[in-house]
Write a structure and sequence with these properties.
- Helices cover about 45% and strands about 25% of the residues.
- It has four helices and five strands, in the order βααββββαα.
- A hairpin with a 2-residue loop joins strand 2 and strand 3.
- Helix 2 packs antiparallel against helix 4.
Length: about 100
């Protein structure tokens, strides 16, 4: 198991299937918990926090070395994996969930 700082490379090894898994990844990182196939661990540093994100089926761990790196990753996730104009994954997920309930 190795730590990867390049989130684009890490994401290329994680097969995000649909809006549920995109949201689970977002939720895991923002809430520092397990969500679906993802688990995020947050550790305190002298100048903030660092994050390690694990995904079932992927031996590599995503290492986000600061709050800035975390926010940059979430911004990338929103822009590349959602169609949200606002880059707001929470609102995007709620809309997708509501659309899924309409027949």
């Amino acid at each position: 198991m190795s730590e990867i700082k390049d989130y684009k490379a890490w994401l290329s090894n994680v097969d995000l299937e649909g809006h549920e898994e995109v949201y689970q990844l977002y939720s895991s990182i923002t809430n520092f918990e397990g969500s679906g196939i993802f688990y995020t661990d947050k550790k305190v540093k002298n100048d903030g926090y660092e994050y390690r994100v694990k995904a079932d089926g992927n031996e590599d761990v995503l290492f986000l070395e600061s709050d800035e790196a975390k926010h940059e990753f979430l911004q990338y996730l929103a822009s590349e994996y959602t169609d949200s104009d606002e880059s707001n994954i929470q609102k995007w997920y709620e809309l997708k969930s509501e659309i899924g309930k309409v027949d």
